[in-house]
C-alpha cells in the first residue's frame, strides 16, 4: 500500500534499534535507505543483517555533530542519487540510567551540552545540508523523531532515586517538536513537509521491575513492540501523507492521554 519505490530516504542514527527497523521496512516497500551513524560496530551489524535483501542499504559513518563531515557526505549522496526524498532525524543520545549524575542537581554542564548537541544541534546541521538539496528539487519530506517524553514529563515515580531520566532528554524531545513545526511553516513554500513522531518506550530487555511499573502508566498496558511503528513510518515516508505538515503524531499506547 505505502509504496516507497525508488525513494531515497536518509536516516540519522540508522544503525540503532528503531533506525535499523526503519531500514528494514523501507527496503521492503522498495525505498532506498541511507544511514548516517557514528558507531562503526553497529553499522557492521546492520550490513550483515541486510546482506540478503534486494535493495542495498547505504551506510555512512557520519557524526551528526560535525558540520564538515555532514556537508561532504550529503553532497556525495546528492551527486550519486540525484535527489534526497526524505530525511528522518532519528539519532539520539541514549542516556545511561542508574547514575546519580543524572539527578537534576548533579547534572553536569558537559553532559547537558553533549546531549543537546546530539539531539538538537545534530538535527539542525543535517537538516540544513539536506534542505539545500530539497529546495533545489522543490520537494522534500522531513520526519523528526521525538518521544512520548516530548509531550509529557517523565513520571518520576517510575525511576529510582538515583536512576532518573536526565532533564536533557525532556528538553531535546520537546525541542524537536518546535524544530519540526518551525520547519513546516518555513519550508512549505518549497513544497517541503515536516512532521514529528512521538513513540512510546520500546520493549528491549528492560529490567522486569521497570516494565511492571511502566505498564501501569500505559492504557494499553504494555510497552511498544519494535514493529508497532512500522505503519506510521511508512505512512509518513510515503505520498499518502502528502497533505500533512506541522503535525505531531503521538503513538504511545495511550500513555500521554491521562
Ligand atoms: N527506544 C525507545 O524506547 C524510544 C522511545 C521514544 C523515542 N525514542 C527515540 O527514537 C530515536 C531512536 O532511538 P533508539 O532506541 O533506536 O536508540 P539507539 O541508541 O538504539 O539508536 C540511536 C542511534 O543514534 C546513533 N548516534 C548517536 N549519536 C550520534 C552522532 N553524533 N552521530 C551519528 N549517529 C549517532 C547511535 O550510534 C545509535 O545507532 C531516538 O531519537 C530516541 O530518543 C526511542
Describe the structure.
With 258 residues, the protein is α/β, with parallel strands linked by helices. It has one domain (8-257): Rossmann fold. It is built from seven helices and seven strands; from the N terminus they run βαβαβαβαβαβααβ. Strands 3-2-1-4-5-6-7 form a seven-stranded parallel beta sheet, sandwiched between helices. Helix 5 (167-187) links the parallel strand 5 and strand 6. Helix 3 runs parallel beside helix 4. The site of nicotinamide-adenine-dinucleotide (NAD) has 26 residues, from helix 1, strand 2 and helix 4. Nicotinamide-adenine-dinucleotide (NAD) binds next to helix 1, strand 2 and helix 4.
Quick summary:
The protein has 258 residues and is of the alpha/beta class. Helix content is 40%, strand content 14%. Nicotinamide-adenine-dinucleotide (NAD) binds at residues 12-13, 15-19, 36-39, 42, 63-65, 90-92, 94, 118, 122, 145, 147, 199, 201-202.
Helix tally? 7
Instruction: Compute the number of structural domains.
Output: 1
- Find the CATH topology: Rossmann fold
Number of strands: 7
**How widely separated are the two ends?**
33 Å
CATH class, named: Alpha Beta
Give the CATH superfamily. Answer: NAD(P)-binding Rossmann-like Domain
Shape: globular
- N-to-C series of helices and strands: EHEHEHEHEHEHHE
Descriptive terms for the model:
7 strands, alpha/beta, Rossmann fold, seven-stranded parallel β-sheet, binds nicotinamide-adenine-dinucleotide
Amino acid at each position: 500500500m505505502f509504496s516507497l519505490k525508488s525513494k531515497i530516504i536518509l536516516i540519522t542514527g540508522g544503525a540503532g534499534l528503531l533506525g535499523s527497523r526503519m531500514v528494514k521496512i523501507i527496503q521492503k516497500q522498495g525505498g532506498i535507505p541511507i544511514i548516517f551513524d557514528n558507531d562503526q560496530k553497529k553499522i557492521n551489524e546492520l550490513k550483515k543483517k541486510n546482506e540478503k535483501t534486494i535493495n542495498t542499504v547505504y551506510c555512512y559513518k557520519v557524526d551528526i555533530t560535525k558540520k564538515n563531515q555532514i556537508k561532504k557526505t550529503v553532497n556525495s549522496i546528492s551527486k550519486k542519487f540525484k535527489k534526497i526524498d526524505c530525511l528522518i532525524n532519528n539519532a539520539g543520545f541514549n542516556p545511561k540510567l542508574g547514575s546519580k549524575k543524572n539527578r537534576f542537581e548533579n547534572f553536569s554542564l558537559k553532559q547537558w551540552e553533549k546531549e543537546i548537541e546530539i539531539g538538537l544541534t545534530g538535527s539542525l546541521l543535517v537538516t540544513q545540508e539536506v534542505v539545500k538539496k530539497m529546495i533545489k528539487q522543490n520537494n522534500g519530506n522531513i520526519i523528526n523523531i521525538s518521544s512520548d517524553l516530548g509531550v509529557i514529563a517523565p513520571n518520576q515515580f517510575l525511576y529510582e532515586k538515583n536512576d532518573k531520566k536526565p532533564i536533557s532528554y525532556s528538553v531535546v524531545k520537546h525541542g524537536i517538536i518546535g524544530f519540526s513545526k518551525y520547519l513546516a511553516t518555513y519550508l512549505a513554500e518549497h513544497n517541503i513537509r515536516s512532521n514529528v513522531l512521538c513513540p512510546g518506550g520500546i520493549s528491549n530487555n528492560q529490567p522486569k521491575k521497570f516494565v511492571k511499573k511502566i505498564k501501569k502508566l500505559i492504557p494499553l498496558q504494555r510497552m511498544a513492540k519494535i514493529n508497532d511503528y512500522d505503519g506510521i513510518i511508512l505512512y509518513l515516508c510515503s505520498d499518502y501523507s502528502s497533505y500533512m505538515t506541522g503535525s505531531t503524531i503521538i503513538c504511545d499506547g495511550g500513555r500521554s492521554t491521562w
